[in-house]
Fold:
Amino acid sequence: MYASMDSMRHKEALAGELSGEDTIPEVEKRKSVMLKKAQQTGIDLEKTGMSDKLGAYFEIYNNKQKYNEYLQNLRVERGAKQRESLAKAKFETMKSAMLEKNYLAKNHLNEEVPFDSEFWFRIGDELPEPRLHIKEVKDPLYVEKPIGKYEPMSKNNVQVFNPDPKKLIKKKFHSKPNSNAEDRDINLDLNSDMMQKIFTGPIHIDFGSLYVKSKEVRCFSIRNELRSSILVEVNTSGIDELSQSDTEPQIIPTMQTGGFNIVFTSAAEMSFRQYITYYINRKYRFKFLVTALVEPVQLDIDRDVIRFSFADTNMEMVTYETIKIRNDGNAPGEFKWLPCMVKLPTGEDHRLFYVEPDQGVVPAGAEYEVRIVYHPSGRVFKGEDGQVVLKITDGREKIVKCTGFVLESRCVFKGVSGTINVGEIPVGQTKSIPVYLQNTHKNPAVFHIGEKLPPGVHVSPPRGRITADQIEAIMVTIQSNQEQSIKFDLVAYIRGGIRQSVTIQAQVVVPRVIIKEDEFDFGDVLLEHTGESILTIYNESNIKAHLNVDLRERVGVKEKMGVECLEFYPISESGDDESSVMVSIVRDDDDHDLDSCKIKPFSTRNLNFFACLVSDDDRLDGKAPSDAGDDSDEDEKKKVPSRLKQITVKPY
Structure:
């Protein structure tokens, strides 16, 4: 305890020396306050020995306060030194950067002026900005405003002629005098005072950076404030890059501004710098400077290395990434992409990486988005590398490196060897068969059915995902409205695997159906009564035939034929629905169902009409028939009545 007290006293003394303050009056003051409080309470501190202890306590307390102040001062000084060192380091960095860019001030003798850091960066004492009196010196040739004897004006009213070269003057003046006054004006001699009233500009036309074979136009302007007209001619002969300029002479009237379109174009890269001569009144020659930097067409892309991978929710055979093509030049840039081609084991060429769209034009100062597509070859699964090349017309090509990753997949058609024969299908009827695609790998497989299918063939589903060791049923539906032979390859493309194919063939035929009766005569039918007749139909085909009865009135017959009196409904309970006109013909000798067709006239008259039986090629919404038997004998093709139809004609 005493050792700590001695240490504290030493620190307090040190703090007192540094601060130059005396700590004894503060201790005595605090001690006297405590003694007064003790006397008021009736406590004798002298007898108890507490007086010395209180003095020691207050001395220690005061030393602590001094020491804390000392530490605070040290922190403040240390922070100030750090900030000063950072400012000096920043100043040295800025100074070195300025030296590298050659931004140091130079005097009129082209010699480097000593660098004054305190003046430029305000380090140290704040210096007032120097105010140097410099006389304004004007070029006697290019005056701001003419001052003549007849036109006095103050200096404050002087205006500067500073035309914008990008703003073209559409109005062009004639090149030959139209009157004697104009002819006299363009032949006048101009003195110095008169020349001060002719303004030209700009004296330096800078086209900036231009693309090869691009065209850029700037305007050279002449302002005439004389009281007479002037003739201005611009000579660009012998300069191929300015051969398309509009240099037709112009007679500029008083208080008018004329403009000459300076057109620049170049077929090669160059740094152009030429003085162009122009004449006033054919006697006074002057020059202005034209500069340009011709560069190849430059198209920038935001990325040159791309990695491709398939998301779990991606059901497509390809994936893509979008990149932007930027044109910061003065003219449109035309481009074309070259794909990355690989050779498959089958000998076919496969586009591994390609771009959509593969060609186009990027307007000046605009962006163009394209897609780089990755289509896996199904051969490499640890990363397929390739590159697509951007060909730029009149520019340098660029290369985008691509790497694609895909999971390996394997699928086969289950239970299929070679060809699937669907057999015969009636015209207009639908027949569906399942084809099973099995995943034989541990990874999920994504498949797409080829889009090149013959007319009348539909596949469902056309795409999908098959989990590991699972089977997907693909329904192939065939429906044709004409007799034909169908044979095609059903191709299943597997993402990350080898495509699978199976051949499917079918024969679409027209069923041969014969009606035994040639005519149906109901005879005399009483009013409110019905008459009946029997219709016998034969099916000579090997397949089921679906027929429709067409009861529409015949075209071209004006007289009513009584077709509206017909009504069809089955006689037997097992027959077809009464509202249906569909007749099913099945090759079964034992199936002789009778359907009834009755007539019940509402007036005394003879009914004579035709009822035509048509096949399902005119009725496409019928129910799909069942499979036809392939083991029918030749004897079964004879005329055997398969179903008897009885027609009822009933007036409404």
